[in-house]
Amino acid sequence: MTTRVIPWGGIVALLTLSFALGLGGCGESLYDKDEAPPEKVEGDVVLQPGLYRMQVSIGGAGGEASGSQFADDTTCLTQADVAGGYREMLLDMQGRDACRFDSYDLQDGTLNAVMTCKGDQFQPETEARIEGTLSETATDLRMTVAGFEGGKGGIDMRVTSERIGECPDETK
Question: What's the rounded Cα separation, in Å, for the pair 131 and 109?
């Protein structure tokens, strides 16, 4: 098995690239133009601003090792980055016009969610099942994305983050 280390800059780049591989945030809006996107979920986790260590591992569906990749990086999350809660961060990263949550169940720090992103001429519609734990200072999520290769292919990702301190002064 070959593991590649990929240096990415920042949590948004890490998650956006990770999700983009599986969810393909292009396509027409999933929301009716006259209907506003859902409001913030009551009780959603709001991460504390600060410096976070982020690790992303990406493999084939079912934990298959072929094509696996790994990234380890640190990034600063500002108050503006985290203000809307975790659900809003995910929607902002994927694009509200292309993706929606079919479900978002957060109970006692455990998340079970399903996000669907509309396909276009380049990518099929995809569905991501997101499961794991969230707290104000850490996440440990597994995302299984299906919809590739006529519905037979997929990607399995694990995304962990942990607050490791304050942001450097120049990034606040």
Answer: 11
